[in-house]
Amino acid sequence: MKNKFSHLTAKEREKLSYPARLLLDKTLLRGKILDFGCGFGKDVEILQSKGLDIQGYDRHYFPTYPQGKFDTIICFYVLNVLMLEEQTKVLLEISQILKPGGIAYFAVRRDVKKSGFRNHKIHQKPTYQCNVILPFQSVFRNENCEIYEYQHINHLIHEDGQSCIFCNPSKDMELIAESASVYAIYDKYPVGNGHALIIPKRHVENFFDLSLKEHAALFFVLNHIKTQLQNLFNPDGFNVGINIGEKAGQTIPHVHIHLIPRYAGDIDDPEGGVRGVIPQRRKYK
Questions:
Q1: Where do we find the motif Histidine triad motif here (predicted)?
Q2: What is the CATH number of the domain that holds 215?
């Protein structure tokens, strides 16, 4: 579900937004910078005048999608005007255009009293506002605003003693994309080009022990990654598989979904597909 009037909450300003001033004063705006959801672009204009290497993207006002990756990404008051699926898509997109080791800052409103649609006073259109809580480190909060700091999960410092490689992913694991509760990487031992793993961040061994919300989050990311792999590798099909339990071939006791692109001729006879986990039963006989 989309909020088609989300862009109507953008405001005309003559000075830097509060989150931009705060991050600038703390010298946290570094390197190549992107303002994701920049609205009318005032922050971009002022920060460029101060010598910062920054560009803006907004699907309504500056719709040219950014190319390359960025050291710092700012996303101010965007998530508050989006439905949950749109919020997740923004997180996934930002994770993909952030450089390894880079940092993204999400500013969200803390003065929204009630989530839902309301008629915009000026535009007279139903605009949406909601409260947003992210599972990232909070670096600032007052009664009106909270700023979260996001880094790729495989660039975070994790607690000592975590033996699970999916709870403590290393930097050499190539991240594809990441949402608030799920991330995707390329398999270290791929069975074909683009073999990806979709992994919940919470440590759960058995797929059936995940919550309904976690199931939905996993399959939302699965669909997103499928689109990415289709564009990158142009496969002819896919296998989607989950190993549950040692006897079913699960070797890492943390839920993960295999998304395997398939190509014409990658095996002599693909008949039966996932039935091939029991080779003698692969054929329909």
A1: 254-258
A2: 3.30.428.10
Residue 198 shares a structural domain with residue 231: yes
Q: Is the separation of the CB atoms in 229 and 192 below 8 Å?
A: no
Same domain for 133 and 197, yes or no, is no
Task: For residues 68 and 5, give the distance between their C-alpha atoms in angstroms, rounded to a whole number.
Answer: 28
pLDDT at residue 160, as a whole number: 58
Q: How far is CA 109 from CA 9, 12, 74, 80, 115, in A?
A: 13, 17, 14, 7, 11
CA distance 52 to 277: 55
137-162 burial: b if 16+ Cβ within 10 Å, else e = eeebeeeebbbbbbbbbbbeeeeeee
Domain boundary among 135, 151, 167: 151
Q: Residue 232 and residue 263: Cα distance in Å, rounded? A: 13
20: which 2 tokens? Answer: 């931009």
Enter the tokens of residue 188. Answer: 């270290």
Q: 258 a known binding residue?
A: yes
pLDDT band with cut points at 50, 70 and 90 for residue 1: low
Cite the active site residues: 256
Rounded alpha-carbon distances, angstroms, from residue 28 to 20, 44, 54, 56, 73: 10, 15, 13, 17, 10
Single pTM value for the model = 0.93
pLDDT in tens, 123-143: 888 889 999 999 999 999 999
Burial of 178 (0-12, 13-18, 19+ CB in 10 A): buried
Please state whether beta strands 116-119 and 126-129 pair in parallel, antiparallel, or not at all (unpaired): antiparallel
String of DSSP letters for 224-266: HHHHHHHHHH--SEEEEE---SGGGT--SSS--EEEEEE-TTS
The answer to whether position 168 is within a domain reads no
